């Protein structure tokens, strides 16, 4: 198999795959537009953003696209289906860093770390700031896959009550309780935190409406580490401006990068991080674990891990 990587790969990982699968040919380039022999490539390993219809037209022999990302919404789905190309991703590798990031948000929220940081900048010693515990608080995790399950695991360590939300309401051992997403509004009044881990699909774009935030406690916090498209700019600004809930923690936003003059930057009850919750120095190493296992499965003509249903979008 002739394989093209379109990102920088550490030398130790190159050596590992070449020792494990010496029969294949490996090509490495960071800009796919500069690669002249796409027609000879059987498999492309990419972060996904550089895969266009034009690339797929040139890659006439392409059989498999391995995406080193969980999100596949930017891919040309129709063209991939037309050419009958297998698409797999690295779903699950983000679970640990994203769950840790979520816990950091929640711990910072109840321990008022931003208030203390602000006071330190002003040399103010003030012990009157009221802090709280995560124990016995309720967190609703919308999305019960690998990331949501890891969030639940860590939250339960802190003795939180965790409710998972998925499409069907199918029970999951990782959660204290699971409900169907169509019933989300019914349980929002119970939440101290709502964490969105949703991918971007037709069904999740603008899923959260003003009514969802109105159903929450005034003291609740909303955390979005999934996709920014799940909540519109307008709804976010209304929630922040009218203080419908206590705080919005946004690692993803409807527009990325968020323009420097965007109103969301200005609200004291909004915390924004630049889509970094999944980042980790272990990212490529975890990706390679799935990639190498799939290489073996591909050779044995076995079903591949994390095969994407292009019609559903995930």
Automatic annotation (TrEMBL):
Family: Belongs to the D-isomer specific 2-hydroxyacid dehydrogenase family.
Record lineage: Bacteria, Bacillati, Bacillota, Bacilli, Bacillales
Matching InterPro entries: D-isomer_2_OHA_DH_cat_dom (IPR006139), D-isomer_DH_NAD-bd (IPR006140), NAD(P)-bd_dom_sf (IPR036291)
Gene Ontology molecular-function annotations: NAD binding; oxidoreductase activity, acting on the CH-OH group of donors, NAD or NADP as acceptor
Domain D-isomer specific 2-hydroxyacid dehydrogenase NAD-binding: 103-277
Keyword Nucleus: no
UniProt xrefs under Pfam families: 2-Hacid_dh (PF00389), 2-Hacid_dh_C (PF02826)
Gene3D superfamilies named in the record: NAD(P)-binding Rossmann-like Domain
Residue span, D-isomer specific 2-hydroxyacid dehydrogenase catalytic domain: 28-309
Protein name: Dehydrogenase
Keywords: NAD, Oxidoreductase
UniProt xrefs under CDD domains: 2-Hacid_dh_1
């Amino acid at each position: 198999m002739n394989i093209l990587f379109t990102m920088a790969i550490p030398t130790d990982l190159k050596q590992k795959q070449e020792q494990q699968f010496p029969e294949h040919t490996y090509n490495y380039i960071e800009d796919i537009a500069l690669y002249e022999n796409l027609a000879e490539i059987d498999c492309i390993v990419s972060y996904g953003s550089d895969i266009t219809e034009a690339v797929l037209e040139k890659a006439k022999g392409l059989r498999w696209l391995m995406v080193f990302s969980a999100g596949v919404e930017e891919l040309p789905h129709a063209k991939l289906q037309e050419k009958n190309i297998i698409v797999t991703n690295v779903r699950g590798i983000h679970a640990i860093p994203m769950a840790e990031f979520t816990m950091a948000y929640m711990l910072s929220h109840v321990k008022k770390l931003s208030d203390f940081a602000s006071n330190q900048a002003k040399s103010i010693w003030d012990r009157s700031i009221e802090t709280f515990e995560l124990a016995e608080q309720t967190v609703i995790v919308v999305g019960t896959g690998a990331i949501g399950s890891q969030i639940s695991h860590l939250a339960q360590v802190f003795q939180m009550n965790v409710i998972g939300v998925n499409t069907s309401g199918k029970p999951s051992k990782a959660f204290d309780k699971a409900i169907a997403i169509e019933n989300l509004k019914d349980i929002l009044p119970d939440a101290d935190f709502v964490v969105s881990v949703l991918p971007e699909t037709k069904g999740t774009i603008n899923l959260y409406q003003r009514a969802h935030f109105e159903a929450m406690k005034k003291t609740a916090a909303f955390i979005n580490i999934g996709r920014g498209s799940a909540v519109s700019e307008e709804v976010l600004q209304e929630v922040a401006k009218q203080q419908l809930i206590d705080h919005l923690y946004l690692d993803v936003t409807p527009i990325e990068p968020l323009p420097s003059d965007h109103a969301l930057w200005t609200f004291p009850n909004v915390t924004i991080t630049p889509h970094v919750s999944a980042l980790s120095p272990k990212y490529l190493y975890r990706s390679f674990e799935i990639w190498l296992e799939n290489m073996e499965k591909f050779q044995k003509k076995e079903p591949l891990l994390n095969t994407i249903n292009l019609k559903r979008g995930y």
